[in-house]
Amino acid sequence: MSTTVDKSGPRVRDMFGEIAGRYDFLNHLLSLNIDRYWRWRTVRIVPPAPGAKILDLCTGTGDLALAYHRAAGGKAQIIGADFCYQMLDIARQKAAKAGAGQSITFIEADAQQVPLDDNRFEIVCAAFGLRNVADTDAGLAEMTRVCAPGGQVAVLEFSTPDRQPFKFIYSWYFRHVLPRIGQLFSRSAAGAYNYLPASVGEFPQGEQLAARMRAAGLTDVTHRGLTLGIATLYVGTKRPEIRGQ
Ligand SMILES: C[S@@+](CC[C@H](N)C(=O)[O-])C[C@H]1O[C@@H](n2cnc3c(N)ncnc32)[C@H](O)[C@@H]1O
Fold first, then answer.
1. Which of 13, 39, 56, 174 is packed most tightly, with the most Cβ within 10 A?
2. pLDDT tens digits, residue range 201-222?
């Protein structure tokens, strides 16, 4: 797929490093707090078993990892991975404050080359992260590789609503209002809040992303729109190992 948005690692890492301190505030403001609901839905649609091993890739400030910690009653073993240390610093502080310091470990890692063993996690997830990874297929391949046979891969990502008149109203907000508010509060030199609609606009969605997940080796891939299609949750299963053959 041809791409015009610059998603080179250093650019994306610097951009998130620059806005890390304002990231949570702006996330909740610009989504009117609906982002919390999307992560809440994710952990309910892909629930953790007691003691589950979970990897949250592109964890950022750790909100999905923390949602899984709460959903598992503190009993999951969670790794949050991201290549931006400024985001991870905030994630670590939030986990310590939430009493999750023992059950969540944060590591600095690129989603395209995850330094973790094959077949290790029952749940591998990424919220609003995969879109930023330079090579989507490499990210999906890594998510699938580290997922245990029979485990689930969940991708929560922005999408474009397809029903009028909401599509028109939301597109106007997303392209014209959100970047201005984001820029005002973040003062991002890298234009992080112009990057957001641009990157969503060219990222595969719906069946297109589902097909890429199947190509990565996942089965039973489903996708469901959340909040009139502003976000979509994609879920796939790694084929269980067939023994005795
Ligand atoms: C929009 S934030 C999402 C953070 C968090 N998952 C959430 O739900 O709010 C995207 C995150 O992906 C990270 N990221 C982007 N590309 C990455 C890559 N190739 N490897 C690891 N992390 C990456 C960024 O550093 C950033 O923290």
1. 56
2. 899 999 999 999 999 999 999 9
CATH number at residue 125: 3.40.50.150
**Could you tell me the distance, in angstroms and rounded to a whole number, from the CA of residue 245 to the centre of ligand 1?**
40
- Scanning the structure block, which residue is given the tokens 């899984």? 68
Contacts 24+ apart (CB under 8 A), 3-7: 3/202, 4/198, 4/202, 5/195, 5/198, 5/199, 5/202, 7/132, 7/133, 7/134, 7/199
In a domain, 138, yes or no: yes
Q: Is residue 1 part of a domain?
A: no
* Residue 2 within a domain: no
Structural domain range at position 42: 9-238
CA 90–ligand 1 middle distance (angstroms): 13
Substitution site in 3, 15, 16 for ligand 1 pocket (most atoms within 8 Å of beta carbon): 16
- Number of domains into which the chain is organized: 1
Q: Is residue 106 part of a domain?
A: yes
pLDDT band at residue 14 under the 50/70/90 scheme:
very high
